[in-house]
Amino acid sequence: MSEEAKRTGEWRGSPLQMGSGLDPNGIKEIVLRLDTGDHETLKPRIRDEFGAYELSQAATYLDSISSQLDLQNR
Description:
By secondary structure, the protein is of the alpha+beta class. The protein has one domain. About 35% of the residues lie in helices and about 10% in strands. It is built from two helices and two strands; from the N terminus they run H-E-E-H. It has helices at about 5-10, 50-70, and strands at about 30-35, 40. It has a two-stranded antiparallel sheet with strand order 1-2. It is globular. The mean pLDDT is about 75.
């Protein structure tokens, strides 16, 4: 994790960067910022932080949104 992320408590990156030793523990929300200026915040329903299953479900959700956007842009 970068020094800035350690100071601010906020990490910005891609899932590909997770393989570089970053542990996904402690994720409290996932914020999607769209080009239109809108945003959507995903938060865990049961605990304060996302668990492995919840992160997997969020990834599936993001993949389906990405696929829909790709179809719209064709």
